[in-house]
Specification:
- There is one protein chain.
- By secondary structure, the chain is mostly beta strands.
- The protein contains no helices and 16 strands.
- Strands 1-6-2-3-4-5 form a six-stranded antiparallel sheet, with no helix packed on it.
- Strand 13 and strand 14 form a beta hairpin.
- The protein starts with a strand and ends with a strand.
């Protein structure tokens, strides 16, 4: 058993007859009244996000997880296949567990948290950013860097991302894997 002082981002807990992952938390100590922890919890079974507030010292039941590095191999419809980098075992994970599956390209290294009790995958954590090549967009205009105007672009994985006007086909861009937004152009 853990308490609210053990809450951190990425912690998996049992709550309301399900397993949830903490995606955001904030310890609040108001001037008047007891302290509490405001959290955003994501269900690992159906992907729904709920807000919840725990009072200070509240006991929570944490789930023992083991995190390993896996390499993304390929996807088959709704199933995504990964290989463990240590023992080369392969696992298949449903698309609903993944946060941004459209940003994952073959060979990408991800961290997968697995419940040690039943061996079920709980979450897949991608790197903070991924580098992808732009495969289709309107031609870029040189000197269009001053404004915040954007245009749609398709990257090598098929995802559509809004990019600045100066980006051309063939450019490599860095994309925030959590939000799916453009960060910067990569010069080679």
């Amino acid at each position: 058993m853990a308490s609210t002082s053990d809450i951190r981002k990425g912690l998996c807990i049992k709550y309301n007859n399900g397993i949830y992952k903490v995606i955001e938390f904030l310890h609040v100590k108001p001037g008047k009244g007891p302290a509490f922890v405001r959290t955003k919890l994501k269900s690992v079974t159906n992907g729904k996000v709920i807000d919840n507030t725990f009072s200070a010292g509240h006991k929570i039941e944490d789930v023992r997880v083991e995190t390993n590095k896996f390499q993304f191999l390929y996807n088959e419809g709704e199933a995504f296949h990964f290989m463990n980098n240590d023992d080369y075992n392969q696992i298949s994970i449903d698309k609903s567990i993944l946060d941004n599956p459209e940003l994952m390209k073959e060979g990408e290294i991800v961290s997968i948290s697995i419940n040690t009790e039943d061996g079920m995958p709980l979450s897949v954590d991608m790197p903070a950013s991924v580098i992808l090549e732009v495969t289709h967009t309107e031609p870029g205009v040189k000197g269009n860097t001053a404004t915040n105007a954007t245009k749609p672009a398709t990257v090598e994985t098929g995802a559509k991302i809004n990019v600045p006007l100066f980006i051309n086909e063939g450019d490599k861009i860095k994309v925030d894997s959590e939000k799916g937004t453009y960060l910067e152009r990569i010069k080679e």
